[in-house]
Amino acid sequence: MKTTQPALRPYLETIENRCRSLDKESLLQLILSLAKQVGTEKRNDFLQTLNSSLPDGEQQKPEPPEIQATDLLAEIEELRQEIETRIESIEDGTYWDDPDDDWDDSDYTDEEPDMLNEYQQEALAEYFGRADQYFIRGDKKKAKDIYGALFTLMSDTEEYGYYLPDIKVNLREAGARFARCVYELSSENERLDAMLEIMTEDLFSAPPLLTDIIDAETDDLKGFDSFLSSWKTALAEDDFRIKRIAELQLEATFMHSGITAVGELARNWGKEQPRGYLFWLQELEREENWEAMRDISSEALVLLPDGREREKAANYLIDAGKQLAEDTIILTGYREQFKSEPSTGRLLNLITEASRQQLRKKELEQICIFLSEKDQTHAEKNLLIKSLLMSGEIDLALRLCEQDKAVGWSFDGGPGLLYGAVLYLLSDSDSSCTIIHNLIESYTESGRIYFGGYADRPVESDSSDFKEILLGLQSIDTSSLDLEHYRKWAWDIGQKRVNHIVSNTHRKAYERAAITLCSLAETMAIKGDVDNAQSLLHEYYRVRYNRHPAFRQEMREVVGKSKVLCGMVGEL
User: Fold this and answer.
1) pLDDT bracket for residue 569 (50, 70, 90)
2) pTM
3) Please, are residues 237 and 252 in contact by the beta-carbon 8 Å criterion?
C-alpha cells in the first residue's frame, strides 16, 4: 500500500513537537546521526544546506544565479510548443518518419510513445521545482504565475486525449500551493470568485481540497473564518451531483458545522451523490466511532446503487465489524462488497471469511443463487461457473456450458475451466495429471498475471480461485454422476477445439490446442488405458496433422512435461 506523504504544515509541526523536548546536546547528536545517513555523493549537498541555514551570515555560501520568473515563463511557453508539436507528429504519423526522433535510438519500435519525451518530463519537473522555490521564499506572485502556466500547460495538453506520464512531482501539493497563492494575492472582495474559479475548474489532475491549501504553509490563512462561511454558501448553490463540487461542499460543511451537518447533507443527497455517505464514513473512521460507522455504512448499503461507491461503503462495514469483533457484520460486509461489483477477488474475500466462520457451503449456495438471478455479463457467467465448481455443483455448471462453442475460451474462460474440471474428475483427481491441473489453473485468475476488478483495496485472502475450485471438486461424490455423459461432452468439445485451431492454422493457439488434446490422453492413461491414449496422440501427430510441424512440436513439448505421458515422447 502506497504511503501518503504529509503536507508541509503537519510535517513541520510533527518535527517541531519532536524537537522541542530535546536539549542542545541531544539536538547535536540528532543532526550528526542524520549526517551519517547521507550517502557519500550527497555530503556536499547536505553541508551546503546546513551552511545556508545557519544564522551566521559569514558561513553562508552564495546562492547560484537565479533564472528570472519572466524567463521561466518564456521557457514554459517554449516547452508547450515543443509538446504540442510532438503530439501532432504522433497523431499524424510523422513522428515515426523522423530519424532524429528519440524513438529511433531505442531497441524496439515505440508504438505508443509517451506524450512527453524524457527531456520534456525532466524540464516540467524542474519548472515545478522552481515554482516551489519561489513559494517557499515567500514570493507568491512569481510562484502563482509559474504554477499557473504549468497547470494550464498540463490541462491543455491532456485535452488531446493523452495521459501525462508520471513526472515525479507531488501535483496535489503543487496545486495546493498554487491555490494558496491565489487566495493570498486576492483582495477580500475578489477572493471568493477567484477561489471558486481555480478550485472548481478542470485544471488539476490531482485537485487539492481546502485542507491541503491550509497545510501548504505553517501560517494561518488570513480572514479564513469569514471566507469559509461565504465559501460554504457559494458551493451549496452549485450542482452537488458533480463530484468535485460535492467534495468541496462536504469539506466546507464539515469545517464549518461539524460531522452532524455532514450526515444531514449525505442523507439529503442519498443515492444521487454517494460521496456524501463516503465522506461521512471517512470522518467517523477518523474519530474511531465504530458503532456509528457500522450503522451508517449499513444505511448506505441500502440506499446506494451497485458500483465502486457502494463497495467502499461495504469496506467501511467490514472495518467496523472487525473493530467491534462482530462476525455477522464482517461477513455481511464482504457479501455486500461482492454484490456491489462481483469479481474473483471479492469472491475470494467472501469465501475466506465464510470459511473462517465455518459457513463456506451456505455462503457459496447464496452466491450461486445471486449470480444465477442476475442479468449476467460474460464475466459474471464465468464467475457463476467458478462458484458452482467451488461448491461442487458440477452438474449445474455443465448445463450452463453444454451449448458453448469449442473456441474463444481465452476470452470467455468458463467452458475451458469446466473442461479442465471434468477431466479432473475423470482422472480420479490424480495429482500426477499435471497437464489437467495446469489447464484448470490457466483458466483461473491464479494462472494469470494479476487479479482483476478491484477498487480501493487488494485481495485479502491468501487462497486462490484455483485452490477453492479444487476443494469443491474434491468434495464431489463421483458415483452420483453420469460420468459417461461428462466423458462424451469433454471428448466432443476437446477434439472440436483442437481441430478448429490447427485446421485453421491459428499458430498462436497451437500450444493451447496441444494442451487440450494431451489432457484427454492423460485421463485415459491415468486410468490404465495407455494404448488408446497413445493411439489418440499418434493419430493427431502422425496422421491428421502430420504436415503441421509447429503443432507437432507443441505436442512433443506438452507430452514431455506430463508425468503421465512423458514416456510416450519417443513414440510420437
Assistant:
1) confident
2) 0.82
3) no
Give tens-digit pLDDT for 425-447.
999 999 999 999 999 999 988 66
d(CA 415, CA 404) in angstroms, rounded, equals: 7
- When pLDDT is cut at 50, 70 and 90, the band that residue 143 belongs to is very high
Those residues with Cβ within 8 angstroms of residue 457's Cβ, 6 or more apart along the chain or in another chain: 315
Q: Please name the residue that has the C-alpha cell 481546502.
A: 210
Grid cell, residue 332, equals 455481511
CA angle, 543 then 547 then 552, to 5°: 80
3-state secondary structure 295-360: HHHHHHHHHCCCCHHHHHHHHHHHHHHHHHCCHHHHHHHHHHHHHHCCCHHHHHHHHHHHHHCCCH
Give the number of other CB atoms < 10 A from CB of residue 386. Answer: 30
State the pLDDT confidence band at 340, using cuts at 50, 70 and 90.
very high
The secondary structure of residue 439, as a DSSP letter, is H
Dihedral angle computed from the Cα positions of residues 76, 81, 86 and 91, in that order, rounded to the nearest 10 degrees: 130
One-letter identity of residue 237: E
* Burial bucket for residue 110 (CB in 10 Å: 0-12, 13-18, 19+): middle
Residue 388 near residue 396 (C-beta atoms within 8 A): yes
Instruction: Go through the chain and tell me how many residues it has.
Output: 572
Average pLDDT over residues 523-532: 94
User: What pLDDT is attached to residue 413?
Assistant: 73
Report, in angstroms and rounded to the nearest whole number, the Rg of the chain calculated over CA atoms. 32
Distance from CA of residue 226 to its chain's centroid? Answer: 40
Helix, strand, or coil here: 545?
coil
pLDDT for 63: 43
Q: What is the 3-state secondary structure (H, E, C) of 492-539?
A: HHHHHHHHHHHHCCCHHHHHHHHHHHHHHHHHHHHCCCHHHHHHHHHH
Q: How far is CA 427 from CA 141, 444, 488, 489, in A?
A: 77, 20, 14, 15
Residue with cell 461489483: 341
Q: What is the pLDDT of residues 11-26, one digit of tens each?
A: 777 877 778 887 888 8
Sign, Cα dihedral of 173, 178, 179, 181 = positive
Contact 208, 175 (CB under 8 A): yes
The mean per-residue pLDDT over the stretch 158-177 comes to 85
* pLDDT tens, position by position, 257-303: 999 999 999 999 999 999 999 999 999 999 999 999 999 999 999 99
Angle, alpha carbons 520-526-531 (nearest 5°): 75
Return d(Cα 408, Cα 415) in angstroms, integer: 9
C-alpha cell at 304: 446506494
First to last CA, the chain: 51
Name every residue whose Cβ is closer than 8 Å to that of residue 205 and which is 6 or more positions away in sequence.
Answer: 154, 158, 164, 171
